[in-house]
């Protein structure tokens, strides 16, 4: 629960700076900044899939902390609430194995609110990417948006806003389709 409390309370900027200081600077486990290109690395620079993943370990960890903490807390609360439902007690009374009860009855119903939050958190993820890209000097959509705002480059800002809006719409559509797959009682009409 300490991990969950820190993940929910701490800002991604602060978490990124702490990770960069301890994991990158003090312990020399991963590089602090720079970006290894996956396909076309510049001459004399690291590149390829392994180096690319190695250089993105800290940004991924920074980005993951907030969302992992939120979802762990939500899944735990939903599972505890669903365990007390009548249909779970009925399944156990009929002699269903515990793993089957957990998978078919508890997790299916506990995952619906989590899937809803996943669709709504796409906007939050795009906002968190700005901080993560800034801390680790990564080229990306968030950094491009900040640079375009500073340069008053309106077409670039509009393009990023339109792309972000389309991404949110597509992910919400995927969430709606996942509802029918998770819970067959929900019909798509």
Question: What does this molecule look like?
Answer:
By secondary structure, the protein is an all-alpha fold. It has one domain: MetI-like fold. The protein has 9 helices and no strands. It is globular.
Helix content: over 70%
- Main sheet makeup: none
Summing up helix and strand content along with how strands pair, one would put the structural category as mainly alpha
N-to-C CA distance? 41 Å
What order do the SSEs take from the amino end to the carboxyl end, as H and E?
HHHHHHHHH
* Strand residue content: under 5%
List the quaternary state of the chains. single chain
**Count the helices. How many?**
9
Overall number of structural domains: 1
**Averaged pLDDT:** 87
| CATH fold naming | MetI-like fold
CATH class: Mainly Alpha
* Low-pLDDT residue spans: none
Topology record:
Elements: H1 2-9, H2 12-26, H3 49-55, H4 57-83, H5 86-93, H6 98-120, H7 122-135, H8 141-150, H9 154-182
Structure summary:
With 189 residues, this protein is mainly alpha-helical. It has one domain (2-182): MetI-like fold (Orthogonal Bundle), CATH 1.10.3720.10. It has helices at residues 2-9, 12-26, 49-55, 57-83, 86-93, 98-120, 122-135, 141-150, 154-182.
Task: List the main descriptive attributes of the protein structure presented here.
MetI-like fold, mainly alpha, 189 residues, 9 helices
């Amino acid at each position: 629960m300490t991990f969950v409390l820190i993940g929910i309370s701490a800002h991604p900027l602060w978490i990124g700076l702490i990770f960069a200081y301890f994991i990158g600077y003090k312990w020399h486990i991963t590089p602090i900044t720079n970006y290894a290109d996956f396909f076309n690395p510049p001459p004399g620079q690291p590149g390829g899939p392994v180096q690319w993943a190695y250089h993105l370990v800290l940004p991924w960890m920074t980005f993951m902390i907030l969302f992992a903490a939120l979802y762990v807390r939500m899944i735990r609360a939903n599972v505890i609430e669903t365990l007390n439902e009548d249909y779970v007690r009925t399944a156990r009374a009929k002699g269903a194995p515990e793993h089957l009860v957990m998978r078919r009855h508890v997790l299916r119903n506990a995952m619906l609110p989590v899937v809803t939050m996943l669709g709504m958190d796409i906007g939050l993820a795009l906002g968190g990417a700005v901080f993560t890209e800034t801390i680790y000097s990564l080229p990306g959509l968030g950094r491009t948006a900040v640079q375009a705002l500073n340069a008053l480059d309106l077409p670039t800002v509009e393009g990023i806003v339109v792309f972000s809006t389309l991404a949110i719409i597509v992910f919400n559509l995927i969430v709606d389709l996942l509802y029918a797959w998770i819970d067959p009682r929900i019909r798509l009409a």
